[in-house]
Design brief:
Helix content: 25-40%
CATH superfamily of the largest domain: HUPs
Structural class: alpha/beta
Strand order of the largest sheet: 11-10-9-12-8-1-6-7-13
Number of helices: 7
Bound molecules: flavin-adenine dinucleotide
CATH topology of the largest domain: Rossmann fold
Order of helices and strands: EEEEEHEHEHEHEEEEHEHH
Radius of gyration: 22 Å
Length: 260
Amino acid sequence: MEIYVLVKQVPDPEAIIKVKSDSELEIENKYFTNFFDEIAIEAGLKLREKFGGKVTALTVDNKKVDALRRGIAMSADDAIQITDPALEGSDQFAIARALAGYLKDKPFDLILAGRQAMDDDSGIVGPAVAELLGIPHVNTIIGLEIDDPRKEAKVVREVESGKEILSCPLPALFTCQKGLNNPRIPQVMNVMKAMKAQIKKVDIAALGLNAAEVGSQGAKIKVQKYLPPPKRPPVKMIKEDFPQSVKTLVKLLREEAKII
Ligand SMILES: Cc1cc2nc3c(=O)[nH]c(=O)nc-3n(C[C@H](O)[C@H](O)[C@H](O)COP(=O)(O)OP(=O)(O)OC[C@H]3O[C@@H](n4cnc5c(N)ncnc54)[C@H](O)[C@@H]3O)c2cc1C
C-alpha cells in the first residue's frame, strides 16, 4: 500500500508563547510532533507491516522538520517538506492546497492525518485535502481495517454513547483519534538515523501552484487579533486556624470565585 501521512510540528506545551502583535505570535523554538500525527504514522506503519508498501511523511513548513524526523525515527520510508517563501501567511485552506498540490498526481491508497493540530486546533486540514483531491474522508477514527484486494476500508468512530462503523472505497483520507493505537517509541539507532536523514524539499512551483494560491494571498481566513489569556489573580493565603479557615474558604469560593 502507498500511504501518505500528513504531519505537523507544534510548539512544546512548555514553550513560551507571547503575543507579538495583533496577528503575530512569538513562539519559543521548542517543537515536537503533533500527538495525533504520531497516531497517524503508527497506523500507516501497521498497515505497511501487514500489506507491504511505503509510508511517506509529508509536511508544509518553512522552518521546521521535527515531525518528519520523528516519522523516519518511527520507521517511515520517506519524508517530504513542502517549503516556499510564498507559503508565509497561510491559513488552513492554503496549507491544504499545498498538500493536495503535492498529492494530486501521486499514486496512493491512503492518506492519514491527525484529528487536529494541538496548537491551532482547527481540524480542517485533513478534510480539506480530501475535498481538494475529490476522495472520501472520515474524521476521528479509532479503528481501521483494510480489505486490500477489494481496495476498501472499514473504519470505526466513537459517537455519543456508542460506536459507528463506516466503509468506503480507497483511496481515502482518515483523520486519526486517540485510541486508534499506541504510537511506538523509536529505537535510539533510528533516532540517530533520522537526525542525519536527507529531507526532500519541494517548492510550490514544483506543485504547479503559484504564489497567489497559497500563503497570505491564497488564505481565506485572516487572524484579526490574538489576545493573551487574562492574568491569574494572585494567590490568597488564608491564615486563620481551623475551623474559621474553612468558613473563610467557603465564603471566598462563593462570593469571590463564584464557583459554589
Ligand atoms: C509556512 C507557514 C506559514 C504560516 N503562516 C501563518 C500566519 O501568518 N498566520 C497564522 O495564523 N497561521 C499561519 N500558519 C499556521 C497555519 O495557518 C496552520 O498551521 C494551518 O492552517 C493548520 O491549521 P491547524 O494547525 O489548525 O491544523 P488542523 O486542521 O487542526 O490539523 C489537522 C491535521 O492536518 C495535518 N496538518 C495540519 N497542518 C499541517 C502542515 N502544515 N503540514 C502537514 N500536515 C498538516 C496534520 O495531520 C494535523 O494533525 C502558517 C503555517 C505555515 C506552515
